[in-house]
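User: Round two. Same drill as before: sequence, then structure, for each protein.

Assistant: Same drill it is. First protein:
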Amino acid sequence: MSARPELSHDLHIHCLCGAVRLVASPPVLCAGHCHCDNCRWTHGAAMWTWITFERERVTPEPGSEPLVDYLSVSGATRSFCGRCGTSLAYRSADAPTEVDLSLANVVEDYSPKFVAHCWAGRAPDWHPIPDDGLPRTERGSSSPELT
């Protein structure tokens, strides 16, 4: 990808209750905002902001409970805490070696360089996409224009 946010340290991702704790090691492959129906419904928000890592670079902290997986109708796997329900991860069959993590659940103060608004045409009328200069795609993070 042409826009790789620089990151020099591990990031820690926790759910609301703290039962699931993950560590993600650099590099960040991509970061963006998804406006698709599934992301909005999963997170109960107008969009989902994510950061992408190689799956092998995301590991549970010692003592962490395992994520619970849900295979969505789109064929993607969404992973969440089985105790509090916090949605933390997304895996697509189109990119089997990658995992998208919820930026809102990163413990550290980290501001990545975002690459796009994905599925922009599905943004709800009640929350229009801001004019922030990012490209808008009608596909997900694996869109050819983002790779």
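Second protein:
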Amino acid sequence: MKTLDQLRAIAHQFIWVIFDLDETLIFRAPDIVQQANLAALRILCTKTHDMRFLADHLAHVYQHTAKGNGILVPKRQQLQLLLQRLGRSDNVESLFTAYITAYMSKVEMFPEVQATLSALKINGIRLGIATNSSPDVVEEVLQNYDMLHFFQIVVTPAHVGSVKPSHAYAAFVTEQTGAAPHRIMFVGNHAEDMMTARNMGSTAILVRRGSDKQEEVMPDYIVKTLKEILPIFCDDNAIDGNDPTTT
């Protein structure tokens, strides 16, 4: 574990901050994927294709398109594979719309996120996302909360063919930044994020919101909100969300 002063002393080396998405930038209800999938399946429900029948077939699709807690294909593609398996010609976009509408009803951005991202960007830090969610769902979330413009890279399992915290995923994230590993800070809320940072050879910052549990993988630094990473990089004006070049 490093202290804040130790991180400040090496802050000049960081040119990238990579964020996990779920529970780091946004709150996501525990049953979100299940409820969103049910919303999509209701579109397909008929007398011959009841919900249990549809759920069984979707589970089969998941067996071939998911690994661990990550989705290896875009959600639209997963839904299209379900339609093909069922021999149905329904519009996949209507299924995705039902899915994402239900999904977004169970998502909320943490209150300090916009100000934190703005302050980091003002201070010249490049920002990225590394998540195990599907790319089309991630895009919808980032657009809905006006965050997409902050990020220069967005990495998902669909881009890599692997999930966090695999070495392949970690190497792909590093490659996308074009930076040496020691120039990257990885911020997340879960052991898989800390392990991803370790596999990258980068600095690991754990966001531990209201929890004091023992960590499975020791981070370099622990914060309770995203805003607590700003003193590593920023002066007082930037932390307040002001551009120091104009105040």
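The chain has two domains: 4-28+109-239, 32-104.

User: Perfect.
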